[in-house]
Amino acid sequence: MDSLSGILHGLAVAATPTHLLYTLIGVFIGTMISHLPGIGPSAGIALLIPVTFGMDPATALMMLAGIYYGCMYGGAVTAILLNTPGDAAAVMTVLDGYPLAQKGRAASTLAIAAISSFIAGTIGVTALAFMAVPLAALALHFGPTEYFGLIFFALSTVSALTGNSLAKGLMSTFIGLGLATVGIDLQSGIPRFTFGVVELQDKINFLVVVVGLFAISEVSRMVEGTMEGTLHIVRVQGRLWFTREEWRKAWPAIFRGAGVGFFCGAAPGLGGTIAAMLSYVLEKKVAKHPEEFGHGAIQGVAAPEAATNADTCGAFVHLLALGVPGSGATAVIMGAFIMYGIQPGPMLFQTHADLVWGLIASMYIGNIMLLVLNLPLVGVLARILYVPPGILLCIVLGIASAGVYSFNYDTFDMFMALGFGLVGYAFRKLDIPKAPLLFGLILGHTLEQSFRQAMTISGGDPLVFLRSPIAAGLLACAAISIGMSAFAARRRQAVLDQAEARIEADKAEPPRAERPRTEPAELPVAR
Amino acid sequence: MRALKADAILAICVIAGALLYLWSDLHLPTNRIGDPLGPKAFPALVAGGLILSGLLLFLEIRKKRRAMTAGEAPAHAAAPVNRHQLIILGGMVAWTAIYYAVFEQLGYLLATPVFLFALLSYFHRGRHVVNVFIAIGFAGVVYALFSLLLGVPLPRGPLGF
């Protein structure tokens, strides 16, 4: 099935009442999650996987994907109104979004963010549909040697580009790979690193790790915020539409941001934060008045918002075509695929054409739903920001506990999630990125199997990885990405540090244009 | 400087953990039927990678220390740990562990409201009526959603439903 026929076929699948309903539920939950402190897309998806038990896999995956891109859509709201990014990728949106809101342009800035997200999302889904098929066709020729090279490359870029230190990125990846070796070895039947614990023989549940690392550990951040912060909310005011002048400035930025975002998403490990940062830097470089950036340039909102939303589509390219996730959230979606008994990868387009094309087409529909949700209802949805964080953190812990128990009906999983929550807390305090651990854990099994199969075929000759041009090329790319990371990380980190310092400085002083709306009793927290 | 000390401790812990992992790996039984590498080879490579990452962290610490003595500000400092927050978090972890320990015996509908009410009493102080309502309401809604609507049973406990 070619891409165009696939999209049309997918639209027929996605437009059924059940699929429409669950796509709507997914994008709505995603938008709400993006407004809640502490829960990002990875934890949000992991927490809601138990809700999909018993559902048809296509319906469930449409809902989970909806949560992902709904989250990315809504990240701008807290960035613009609260001076706090709703997710890490929205950090650049804060720089110009909040000053615009302070100038009384909150509503029109939110409208620009929504339109940018919609356009970039639509471009991203189209690019996904047209890129995934040829990539999947190419990947059909991959053997264990090439798969080893591909996964090794993905893990090396994630280690090199996530976080502030190459050593800590590698550490996180290898801890993930080590966790993936726990359990019965399928080839020899020997239990490894189970230390006599029966529950560990069936491997460490990926979703338990996600909930622990991303939801339970984030509760600690909310506790810290509850105990020390204050919050300044800018009211949604002004006309909910932008001026002709604003649109004239924004639209080229949207298209450039979409291009940058999609290619960042399609490169494993780069992620939405880097996509947003690169698009922001690009806009500042091409702008006639770069001095406006940081003081309320509309391009500074349009470009990063477009980039983060196109990035989510790019991240689906290699998940669907190669079976390798492109971000933490797509790693969780990959876990959901595996839980439903479906292996993402090149065969997916042949064995589950309805599912994969329905999923892609549902993203078009979901984008339209998000635009409708985010334009007229933004004021209503922003009310979620008023829920006291003390209540939210209890609710997050309650949902996480019930969700983890329902994976296997075993309290052992709950204790393990709590343990990983502590690990996540330590990771945050020690500035170790969490996403590489997830990648190592979910790809570790395939990496080991590919390694062992390749070595078996070659009779134990490690040079087999250099004889395949594809594998050798991917391993060379991995070496280059690791080698280059030290230099690139310094420059990237400098930009992100500047952004974070600006946000912190703004938080330290009350808003300029409007009286601070500080509500110590009800809203005592900044994230 | 405190961040560098924490990093040095981290590097030592990771290398020690990797050596323990490698030691456990070397004591695994061998079975190489149809598989020339056996179950030990891949974990040994992972342990090697962990040790390398620990050593690399030492190199980064050295580089940062040199930069700091040259007068440059550290590029990125880890978040400081507040002792009072740590005590609160420790208490919260202990309370959550107790909740998990009695989760199946007491059942979801008894254990969860008590667990949540205690947390809410601290983090949403002085609003006891609202807190009771939230604790009971949340447990009821989640129980109805999981057990009744989605067919995902949560523990019943002595209540029997």
Structural summary, described in words:
The complex is a heterodimer of chains A (527) and B (161). Helix content of chain A is 72%, strand content 1%. Chain A is built from 20 helices and two strands. Chain A has helices at 3-14, 17-35, 41-48, 57-82, 91-139, 144-161, 166-180, 206-228, 244-266, 271-286, 299-322, 328-339, 348-351, 353-374, 378-381, 389-408, 411-429, 435-457, 464-467, 469-508, and strands spanning 183-184, 191-192. The longest helix of chain A has 49 residues, at 91-139. The termini of chain A are far apart. The longest helix of chain B is centred in the middle third of the chain and has 29 residues, at 41-69. With 161 residues, chain B is mostly helical. Chain B is flat. At the A-B interface, helix 7, helix 8, helix 16, helix 17 and helix 18 of A face helix 1, helix 2, helix 3, helix 4 and helix 5 of B.
Features:
heterodimer, A: 527 residues, mainly alpha, 2 strands, B: 161 residues
